From TrEMBL:
One Pfam family per UniProt: Rib_5-P_isom_A
Subunit structure, interactors included: Homodimer.
Protein name listed in UniProt: Ribose-5-phosphate isomerase A
Residue positions of the active site: E102 (proton acceptor)
Protein's organism: Methanothermobacter tenebrarum
Amino acid sequence: MNLKKMVAYKVAEEIKDGQVVGLGTGSTARYFIERVGMRIQKEELDILAVPTSYQSLFLARDWEIPITSITQHDIDVAVDGADEVDKDLNLLKGGGAAHTKEKIIDYSASEFIVIIDDSKLTDKLERPVPVEVIPTSSRLVCEELNSMGAKVKIRMSDAKDGPLITDNGNFIIDADFGSIDDPSKLEYEINNIPGVLENGIFSRGVDRVIVGTKDGIMEL
């Protein structure tokens, strides 16, 4: 049973004519985009979409989903996945290195829906926190994150020699703090480091978390 596909398709059925929809990035969001595209083709669903990455932009174009931008339209609903979701609905995102634009779009939406399978649920966030940084600041940011108790490494690219480069032309530092007791505080503190563009902790703005499980779909 493909739990990601099940939950993504379910939420895609909730999208209504006239909405401006934020399209998330990642494997679960990919199924959501796919299903929205199917509905446009079969039902003539009339929406505009704001992608959170080149990945979601290219996929949306493949499905002939009309594209707009956050500079042109307010977003009615954003639908995105997550790498981890804790019991207080804090998120950890950025495995796909798209968390900066995801946060801009997800936080600005009138409704922010998170779609995951139940393997992403956790009591506390504990994966390394992705931190997008201006390349020239990377050494200084690493030192500051180290002083805050994190083990850090610059994320390397699988497709080329050297660091992964984000859609914004920056580096990603993965900062391992272990179990995170206060996600909101840590999100704020990391973003106050000079050279940091954005980090992958999402501590506010989540309206609904829809979870695919082997027993069906549940909502947190």
